[in-house]
Specification:
The chain is built from 4 helices and 14 strands. By secondary structure, the protein is mainly beta.
């Protein structure tokens, strides 16, 4: 099968997200300029550089109360900071609860019963029980092709690692089984690892 996206795929469900998978989930926490807080998952998320450490996420839809974008991007535009929290398998239901199109006044930490903690380098809350949290200072927000499509790029200014996830000097993802997004409504978790030596090792 071959199709051009502009012509449509002719399938009952869009295969694009299933092709580009699994995708890590960035559970993005933000604080608005009025002090209200937001927490939402984004599966168009990844690390993009080592030195300095940098991450990105993309927001691809809009809410009627947010002037052409969503709460996360609107808050980052106003404050310039956010926090990325990793999602453990055990947090899947709480994460899913925060994915709803809630009104901007809704505090998803409270809605989903998630404990929060203050960040160290930025004025923002993080998910207290997350295996890792990355405090981020926004460097660019880029609007890309399509309505309400924005890429947020940021430098990581602080890193929180949960102590029980450190094994022999490594951050061991098998201790918490990170959740990843597949296509459609499907998810997976990381449980098995295997090494591959680089050709120049």
């Amino acid at each position: 099968m071959f199709y051009r996206p502009e012509d449509g795929h002719g399938l009952p469900f869009n295969p694009f997200n299933a092709v580009v998978s699994p995708r890590p989930i960035g559970w993005i926490s933000t604080r608005a300029s009025d002090g209200s807080e937001n927490l939402a998952p984004y599966s168009f998320f990844n690390a993009v550089a080592y030195v300095p450490p940098q991450v990105m996420f993309a927001s691809t839809s809009a809410k009627p109360d947010r002037d052409g974008t969503k709460d996360s991007v609107a808050n980052i535009r106003a404050t310039g900071v956010f926090c990325v929290n990793t999602v453990a398998y055990e947090m899947r239901d709480a994460m899913n609860q925060t994915s709803g199109p809630w009104e901007k006044e809704t505090d998803e930490f409270t809605l989903a019963g998630i404990e929060r903690a203050e960040c160290e380098t930025i004025a923002c809350s993080r998910v207290a029980g997350a295996p890792a949290s990355l405090e981020c200072r926004m460097s660019q927000i880029i609007q890309i092709e399509g309505e309400a499509n924005f890429i947020v790029l940021a430098e990581v200014t602080g890193v929180h690692l949960r102590d029980d996830c450190l094994k022999d000097g490594r951050f061991d993802v098998t201790t918490f089984e990170p959740l990843a997004r597949l296509g459609y409504r499907d998810y997976t978790r990381v449980r098995d690892l295997f090494p591959l030596d680089r050709p120049d090792d």
